[in-house]
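User: Predict the full complex structure for these chains.
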Amino acid sequence: MKRIKQNTLERRANILKALAHPSRLMMVDELAKGERCVCELQQLVRADMSTVSKHLTVLKRAGLVESEKRGLQVFYTLLSPCVMNFFTCVESVIAAHKEQAATVARK
Amino acid sequence: MKRIKQNTLERRANILKALAHPSRLMMVDELAKGERCVCELQQLVRADMSTVSKHLTVLKRAGLVESEKRGLQVFYTLLSPCVMNFFTCVESVIAAHKEQAATVARK
DNA sequence: CGTCTATTTGGCTATATTGCCAACTAGTTG
DNA sequence: CAACTAGTTGGCAATATAGCCAAATAGACG
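Assistant: Here is the predicted structure of the four-chain assembly.
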């Protein structure tokens, strides 16, 4: 029955919020395969370099990735590959929701 | 190497976004223990009833909960308890991040 | 040193989210 | 039906997020 501390909830929410964007999900998915430089991620999501950089800052502030500069490039690494496990559950939510929407429509 | 479809990414992001709020996380955590009426959830998060109701609408639109009216009350149920598994991973991110922040500060 | 390349930062506008209040809806009960 | 209770909806102001451009930074290299 114990309530979770407000602080804990906020930190958890921050991490989920950091993930809650299509471009950032795409980048995380790519980083799950190995480290990538910003330029590679930019080509992937096809957004302005500055936009990509800001998305990466969001992920970094949340503690999901870290970066290392080597020469002219900055390489990002996914620190918590366990987030990839979220998607099995997320997909099941999507599937169930679609089904339910169809059922409602059928009425 | 295949890019995930934009559409899939958006739907995934929507679900994560729905979870990414302290009050909603608190409600989801409570609903993981069983169905609850809006009034119970309101007491838990101590916000305006209308605010609670809107948070629940967000969770419902994402397909995470469903609601049933019985008498004067509306009961909400968590449809995908698997989201509770997210938090083990989320906590590890928080722990690692804290550690790293401490390391940086120590320099 | 001057220039090129990769990335970050600042600034701005457009859009989305949050949370409150007030008004409305829908059951319940006298 | 009138009054009450539980919840939802509309509307608004405050705040946060997204994405673009321009300017700044930081290595690499002639």
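The mean pLDDT of chain B is 93.
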